[in-house]
Amino acid sequence: MPNNPSTLLQWDRSSGWYDTNMGNMGDNLNNNVIHPALIEKLGNLNGKTILDVGCGSGYFTFEIAQRAEKVVGVDFAPSFVKLCQKKYKTQKNLSFLVQDIADKFEFGNESFDIILCKMVLQYVESITLFAKESSRMLKNNGRLIVVVDHPFHSQFFYAQSLTGKQNPKYKHLENYFSKNPQEKLSLWGKVKLTWYPKTVEEYITAFLKVGLRLADIREIKEAIEGVDIPRILLLEFIK
User: Which domains does the chain have, with CATH numbers?
Assistant: First the structure.
């Protein structure tokens, strides 16, 4: 099923603003929290073929291309793909294509050693097809690395809202098990994005059901108002 047209519009209009704020290293969350964990998890990329799903402005895709055999970045927003193709056109082992994560991928079976999907799946209504496609596209013993907002992160603000303390980022929040699409003011407070709540169980079982094996799970914390709460969920699966 194609991705929500309004979601595509939300992202496609924000490529310039996103690129400006991410720069060559990412914003604070990406550079200081996600990046160290990902670099450690990716390990030695020598000779590896990698697919970066939801590459955005491509800064991290470009970084891993410095150490890998071949890297392909895909994004469902044409404006992001055009941006990346222009910025990184001299990097010979790096290419960018338009690809909706909610559709079947054009790549053949067992095409990649590593598939990376960073901060994307929370914006996808159903991850069932992506799970199947990941398993299909991975080589034997290939790895899928998924990074998302920790599902419990928004629940801190949900709990606060029940006491009358509303966070301006979230106009309305629901409990952990709600499946209703929700909205948040994101991208440095400039863009209203639709996201689709999923539990930790749902993120894991979607990939187990297609035959992948859970190899690692990491819950990366962030301190808010003196309280450590889960911020990022990192999952590694092996075919």
Answer: 5-152+197-238 (3.40.50.150)
